[in-house]
Amino acid sequence: MDIFKKCLGGYQPAQKVRAAGLYPYFIPLTNNEGTESSIGDRNLIMIGSNNYLGLTMHPQVRQAAIDAINTYGPSCSGSRFLNGTLELHLELERQLASWVGKEAALVFSTGYQVNVGTIPAIVGRNDYVITDKDDHASIVDGCKLSYGKMKRFIHNDMASLEHVLASLPEEVGKLVVVDGIFSMGGDIAPLPEIIPLCKQYGARLMVDDAHSLGILGGGRGTAAHFDMTDDVDLIMGTFSKSFASLGGFIAGDADVLDYIQHTARSLIFSASIPPANAAAALASLEVMRKEPERIARLNEIGAFMRRRYRALGFDIGATETPIIPILIRDDIKTLQTWKALFEAGVYTNPVLSPAVPPDRTLLRTSYIATHTAAQLEKVLAIMEQVGQELGII
Ligand SMILES: Cc1ncc(COP(=O)(O)O)c(C=O)c1O
Predict the structure, then answer these.
(1) Per-residue confidence (pLDDT) for residue 33, from 0 to 100
(2) Looking at residue 273, what DSSP letter applies?
(3) What is the pTM of this model?
(4) Would you say the CB of residue 214 lies under 6 angstroms from ligand 1?
(5) The pLDDT of residue 365
(6) Helix then strand then coil, % of the chain, to nearest 5
């Protein structure tokens, strides 16, 4: 049997949506400058970006990337393990560790690589990794790559977490991994309830703060938000969102980080984060320290939009952050709504099954500290009109 047989005629679900004129993916942006983007001559208000603090536009961040290219060139041409570490990487690690309140940090080339490297490094053959059912795909992939066993609990359901923990043998190693802010729902992992359970059952805790850095805890993440930094063993972050760059890191105790540094395959067998990306992340961190008003403004915008969407009658689930899902709960209707908004000048991201269960399909919207009041009002007016036309509200 030809292994390419399944590819004949392309990827069938995508072909079907293309034929219906509703295909929303891989559309090239001609301009991606913060709160407004364009596609050809169509201008759109961007509420589909993870550039939460608007730092891709910040002159200091841009200049830092340019200067790093001029100093070090576009690539390190090697792994962190060998020739691919610069003093710049070490400085970034020191600054990140201090920002999240941990002894040490280790920078990888993407956030995805942090999770697929760290989890298998820590979770060995006789160990268990316990994850929330809504955890990010990179956590799931990290679990699959580990030699340990994976158990999942119902999203943010503490009885379910306890049930899983209580079912495991006492003498095995256990790592619980949760998103700090859940990437699709915008809701927060209840660390004040998770931490006591981890302690009771002898489990270590890793929090994926990809979306929480720059938003929660004055920008320092979920553990800082709950004032529980010492009780979270590993904090993971990525530069592809608030940090206006590309790359990621894990932070924790120095001994644990030393172990990960020598055993995480996605760190060792892949080239290091390019100098421009490391420098942009470092500059973004400096801006977060110097301009806390950006973080405050982002959270104000989040609260404002949540209030207004709920008042209009949209179902936005349990979000508590500037990541606001518009739950539509039907694949085709989600695509129709995406298209109507797109044509009216609003960029959103449709999230369909199987990425989410079919009754939880949604448009993911997220906001930027630099969105203006006029842009937000325009988004709300268009949302209201489209929502009414399509019978969503
Ligand atoms: C929760 C979460 N973890 C990890 C990642 C991976 O990050 P990166 O884009 O840096 O690979 C993402 C990115 O979408 C994410 O949302």
Answers:
(1) 77
(2) P
(3) 0.97
(4) no
(5) 98
(6) 45, 15, 40
